[in-house]
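Archive entry: two folds, one per protein. Generate the first.
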Amino acid sequence: MMLLLLALQPGCKKMDGFNTVISNDKTKPGVVTNIKVANFSGGAYITYSLPDSKNILYVQAQYKINDKASRQSKSSYYSDSVTVGGFAKSQDYQVVLWTVSRAEVRSDSVVVTVHPDTPAYLRTLPTVKMKNDFGGVHILAVNKVNAPIGVITITTDAQNKWQIISQNYSTLDTIQFSLRGYDTVSRKFGVYITDQWGNISDTVFNDITPIYEAQVDKSKFLPYVLNSDAPTGFGWVLQNLWNDQTTSPGYHTAQPIQPLVWPAVITFDMGQSAKLSRYTIWDRGLDGANYLWEAGAPLTWVLWGRTSTPVDETMRQQTICRLLEERLPAAGSTWASLRCRTSPPSCPIRNIPPRTWLSGMQASPIISTLPFPKCVTCGLNVCRTYH
């Protein structure tokens, strides 16, 4: 083997730079023929037949996408199509095609007309909905073709000048978010849609009066342990969920949970009735410990509540995933569901064998504002969560 390596070594040499595919043939190449167009939202596929020549390197398309900007697309000679996109409207556009040789000699031009369908940013604009939310505005937009778009929100500042307050870029089919921190007086918000090519829609406006929001008085919170609740372990008591500390110790069940009741449930008394909006949960591990989403940390959870005397109920394990994913109350339940949350998206019963969860569940303290976004149920003062 050593002899073989030594024999091959003189055949290798260092190459500097990029070896460009070039040709000395300055002959003008032929044009593309048999051109066909397939339009789509904001663009078009152009197919063609290449001239019979081994000297062609690529096909170039030149076109304007709006009144200000032009784009250029190129396609290798290995392909028989070129994609053009970024058009601002659904109308006729002229696209100029050239074949280009390896000597960078262009053919005569061929002009083809495309008529793209309505681009995504314009399709999204009519779907924009704004409504008042706790401390601000909730915005919803539907991106039917999952295109990369931006939902831009504006409002006026103290000098009554319009300012961008949020830029939400996404390819999701449903884009929704809330902007908070505003007083409970009427305020005008505007939303417009943009795309990756710099096209911008008109702006839709709405007068919004934010819903009053204040932090729940957590000094009134108390454990309310029911027989079916998971036992506490390691001295990590339930009160740690609302003690304004985001580091360890937080809350932890016994390990393992005995007897095993699945899903694991904990119950506490809010000590007050409240209209609920949202909360923040800090998972263990954010303080530097290596337990983020590990060692029994809940991946999916549901918050339930009631104003009447608590009733001890055990959720059926075989229905829990459907319950979590469809946000439905259990059959015969007298608890009101305040929606579920999954982070990261996962169903532990379906994706992870329950035996791996016998180590218990754990969480760092909940720093509460008002539990759960956009929940406008009646006042609820006893909550139980299951994980």
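Generate the second and append.
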Amino acid sequence: MLESKPEYFKIALSTSIAVFGFYQDQLVVLLGNKPHNPFLGAPTLPTSWVEHDKDVTHVAKNVLTEAFGENDLYIEQLNAFAKLYRKPEGRVVNIAHYSLASERMVSKPLLGDYRWVPINEVPTLVYDHNEILEFARERLKRRVKHRPIGFHLLPQEFTFKNIHALYEQSLGKSLDKRNFRKKLLKSKLLVELDKSVTEDGSKKPSMLYSFNEAKYEKLTLKGYDFKF
């Protein structure tokens, strides 16, 4: 039988959140600055300590509230990051999450010392936060292949160019436009609206789309396999 010893409980918990958004056809991530030593002012993922009587995901949602003034975002627990010397202050296990911010959330003013940074311009972050972010990106890549996550990131009305850019940025690779359009329309996820918009750099109006919410709910539960 496992013996209980006081030293087993001398471990702290924290949670960090990789919050992704999509703005001007760019995948962006929410960063802040470390408010105290060590590494005062260093760029960091949104993070909080987790008290012994608090639920980890509840604490993560409170962090979102500190940044946005609300926490109505998609959030999912990622993994435990528990390298022995990941923090100089002592043994700290980070139960990380990732979250998806809607176009409305990305466009609104942020609270506190937070900012959006394009995913390809993320600097060296404090501790192992680059590792956490990379883990979150891999999770995002898997989800975008099997779940209609664009529903969380795009505005209610969008062009094919917007959703194509979202998938390219999320997967980190170029996608053939014709093949992508064919697969997406076959999924029945999109509703073609009787509207169009002229995008920057284009003389031809672009058709606007919205998501088929009923189909979205079904595919969220059932899943699908987008092979690009």
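Annotation attached to the second fold: The mean pLDDT is 89. The radius of gyration is 20 Å.
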